[in-house]
Amino acid sequence: MQRRNFLKGAAALLGTVPIQSALSAQPAPASQENATPDTSAHMLSSSRGLAPIIATPDRIIEMNVCTRPFRLQGPRIQDERIGRKNVVHNYGHGGSGWSLSWGTGRMAVQLAAAHGRRELAVIGCGAIGLTTALVAQEAGYRVTIYAKERPPYVSSHRATGSFTPDSRIVSAQHAPAFASQWEQMARYSFRRFQSYLGVDSHPIEWRDMYSLSDRPPGSPRTPEHHHRPPRTTTVPSAQ
Length: 239
What we know:
Elements: H1 3-16, H2 19-24, H3 37-47, E1 76-82, E2 85-91, H4 97-113, E3 119-123, H5 127-138, E4 142-146, H6 175-194, H7 223-226
Parallel strand pairs: 3-4
Antiparallel strand pairs: 1-2
């Protein structure tokens, strides 16, 4: 793959997709009428290269559950005076904390900059706390992080870490008012993540991801999908 050309294409794609559509719209349900024999044959031939999925309860190593604070109106990035301190709130990103961490961190630091102080305390060291601290350091702040736990014992460490900037980030009702702020966060975060491609420790990399579903993309979830009886499926083994 020509990485440079691919990155240019990805950046161009981010610039041309309507932000409002990414926030609130869903793809139209796929129709079987659109499938052709050639398309079906190609999909079947491609799937034969996938390794069989062996998913049984005895193969579960560990189960983790973490919270994803969600606010209908979107995350709270707001300056507030509490006692003798200026506090910048930066929370409530739903399922998009990792994805928007750089952009939301920059917004929080910009709010803090209005007070003219050069010392800044960050409470929490998950994805958003750490990126906020790094952005503040780059801006010349002396930063101290206060946290109950450190990685890998923070909730962010259990997240997938995929770039999903519109995952449970705002309700459809509040999406129009939040669109501009979301676009700024998403664009800046995307650029920062791109800058880590190719470094030795591979903190960021491109990965192929697949989703298996009995429903067409974008179709509503019905009660029978919640209580579907188990079934056995034969998957061709990889050659």
